[in-house]
Amino acid sequence: KAGVTQTPRYLIKTRGQQVTLSCSPISGHRSVSWYQQTPGQGLQFLFEYFSETQRNKGNFPGRFSGRQFSNSRSEMNVSTLELGDSALYLCASNQGQGDYGYTFGSGTRLTVV
Amino acid sequence: SQQGEEDPQALSIQEGENATMNCSYKTSINNLQWYRQNSGRGLVHLILIRSNEREKHSGRLRVTLDTSKKSSSLLITASRAADTASYFCATGGLGSGNTGKLIFGQGTTLQVKP
């Protein structure tokens, strides 16, 4: 069974640009969550999608957005990048119901210069 | 904001020794999970313990949960160099009303010396 795939692995962008990150969940998983990890703030929840609907959202500015497609693949977009957006972005998938652990991808390392 | 506090922040032991990490949380939970992260890569799910469980085992891992104290501990027995990683507790997620949202502690960095 293939794991959670995140692309790209590394990304360097300039302040003010926008970026789109992609996540393909485990086959059959309908829930995809996104997290930002930084040394200062740790792991913070961005949002979660289930069956193409945003089910929960963290405390991030509107520059951070996401979507989920009918095949459960998800994208997150960050517009007007700031230096503080430099982080490891992790996506996690889950069946979407019941008490189960999450399977995480390897992450996308975003550097904003 | 982070739900959990983990203790210690860093732990260094010799191979073969046991490692214990503690996690405290603030709100009521339906389950608590432990994850491992190697060197800035993705997290690996280790174990989930439900609020009505007090102890759970998985291989060399033993997790306890004390809901009255809002705390959990992860014990790794007979540690190996390959156990060197950061360990995070997480609460929330499905079944707790916070659908799909995990709240992580700040993690414990474990170094196992060969």
In short:
By secondary structure, chain A is an all-beta fold. Chain A has strands at 5-7, 10-13, 19-24, 31-38, 42-50, 53-57, 64-68, 74-78, 87-94, 103-104, 108-112. Chain B is built from no helices and eleven strands.
What would your notes on this structure say?
The complex is a heterodimer of chains A (113) and B (114). With 113 residues, chain A is mostly beta strands. Chain A is built from no helices and eleven strands. In chain A, strands 2, 4, 5, 6, 9, 10 and 11 form a seven-stranded mixed sheet that branches. A four-stranded antiparallel sheet of chain A has the order 1-3-8-7, with no helix packed on it. In chain A, a hairpin with a 5-residue loop joins strand 7 (64-68) and strand 8 (74-78). The mean pLDDT of chain B is 90. Chains A and B meet through strand 4, strand 5, strand 9 and strand 10 of A and strand 4, strand 5 and strand 10 of B.
Query: What radius of gyration of chain B results from the CA coordinates?
Result: 13 Å
Shape of chain A: globular
Percent of residues in helices of chain A comes to under 10%
> What series of H and E elements makes up the topology of chain A?
EEEEEEEEEEE
Low-confidence stretches of chain A: none
Shape of chain B: globular
Tally of individual helices of chain A? 0
Structural class of chain B: mainly beta
Q: Kindly report the greatest chain-chain contact and the residue count on each side.
A: A-B, 31 and 28 residues
Give the terminus-to-terminus CA distance of chain B. 36 Å
Task: Lay out the secondary structure.
The complex is a heterodimer of chains A (113) and B (114).
Chain A: E1 5-7, E2 10-13, E3 19-24, E4 31-38, E5 42-50, E6 53-57, E7 64-68, E8 74-78, E9 87-94, E10 103-104, E11 108-112
Parallel strand pairs in A: 2-11
Antiparallel strand pairs in A: 1-3, 3-8, 4-5, 4-9, 5-6, 7-8, 9-10, 9-11
Chain B: E1 5-7, E2 10-14, E3 19-24, E4 31-37, E5 43-50, E6 55-58, E7 61-66, E8 71-76, E9 85-93, E10 98-104, E11 108-113
Parallel strand pairs in B: 2-11
Antiparallel strand pairs in B: 1-3, 3-8, 4-5, 4-9, 6-7, 7-8, 9-10, 9-11
